TrEMBL record:
Keywords: Lipoprotein, Membrane, Palmitate, Transmembrane, Transmembrane beta strand. PROSITE patterns: PROKAR_LIPOPROTEIN. This is RND transporter. GO terms for cellular component: plasma membrane. InterPro entries: MdtP/NodT-like (IPR010131), OMP_efflux (IPR003423). One of its GO terms (molecular function) is efflux transmembrane transporter activity. It is found in: Cell membrane. It is a lipid-anchor. Coiled coil: none annotated.
Amino acid sequence: MPIPPAKRPALRAATPRLATTLLIAGLLGGCAVGPDYSAPGLQLPARWGAASPAVTATGEEQDNRPPDLARWWERLGDKTLNRLVDEAVAGNLDVATAKARVRQARATRRQAIGALAPSVTGSGSYTRADNGTNVSDTGDVTVSGPFDSFALGANASWELDLFGENRRAAEAATYGLDAAQETLRNTLLTLIGDVATYYVEARGYQARAALARRTAASQRETAALTRTKLQVGSASAVDVANAEGQAASTEANIPELESSYQQTVHQLAILLGQPPSALNDTMKRSAPIPTPVRTIPRGVPANVLRARPDVRLAERQYAQYTAKIGEAEAARYPDVSLVGEVTTSAAKVGDLAKSSSISWSFGPSVSIPIFNAGQLKAAVDFAQAQRDEYFLAYQAAVLGALQDVENASVALQQERRKYRSLDASAASYRQAVSLARTLYQSGSSSFLDVLDAERSAYSADDTLLTSRVAIATDYVALNKALGGGWTGTVDDRAPAVVDTQMAPRLVSLDHAGLKPREREDQGIGEAFAH
């Protein structure tokens, strides 16, 4: 409706009434439907069960101390491992993927929050028209046109969200961002544990291969000694064959151990986001198997809920899907919006702000669901079932976390007891080898005693190394179970791919994807060929 210039002050006078209307609408927008989220209360044991509590050197029980999990891998005392962990955090592809999902969740939250605000769009047009040339019966010619017309306009709308549908969506998106960040932390926890585990296993294979080579060399020396005794008639050909057979049998273990070592190093490189052979030079120099020397205080079971990112992730997902119930329930209620439009038109661009024709409209818009064959109620039922699913998943995550700590504690404790027995066993077998060789050289013992002692000593030493690896990997597993992960900062805002051509530009048919790709495919083939 056009507004004469004389009446435009009346429009300005109506502005306070309009502001009052919007304020009342904003106050009404404080309603919400659906359940409000509250953190679930779970009954947790006051103490850990199977394993005995950690005890200090003075005998004071310290099991209830919160575990110190910051950079726990550094307590293994291996600088190479520390460097590999730092490189893995920076280059691992799963971590990069989790960062991208955090950025997705952050953008989704911004979209959801944006739906709470009014939206304004502008429009403009230019029209040139000619009504044609008219010729009368008397021959008079009337020319009407051409005519120019310019128009500018603005449209505004604001969904009042009386029953909180958009607010519940924003709430769910906020919980979704929390869940994405916990997923990133959980990915880092898993990554660091895997890097430490594979590193320990690689050093274990190295040590076992070196043991096999030393043992085989010693057994070759025994075979050479036996061959010498055969030449002087104090040994039999059977003794020589047994000695050489045992040395060959020990040597046969080396390729398998080397293969396992290489596969472990390859997997370690992949965790760092590098080609499989990237760590061959780094790992080539042998190093001791990392050995933990400090006992880990496990705290109380309730600490797991605060420290484990997978438990926190499950709780955030439960909160997210609780908010989605309110979002689905609000869709069953009326939807009220305020819409407005202002348009000005003139024959010249310069007249749009002064000698123009202005029209405006303003008013509420109401949408009421009347009949939808139960679809909206079914959506609420679906959201409630999803919420139940994630609540049960949270309970399962808590129980799984408690089980992980108990299992890792028992495994580490029992493996240390096993190692003490294996260490004593290996020392006895090494002494038996020395005695058997001395007695055999003096003719006081048979060669079978030497073979049996060497075989038992090699087996005991190899088992001892395997136990050292198990102690270290159980230590890693316990730190993971307690929630030990990356405590440093992680930049989750930098994109993996930087787009440099987002502005409008002219494109060719090639860039628009409208031409065949034979030339591109040929280029790819040439790249692989080179």
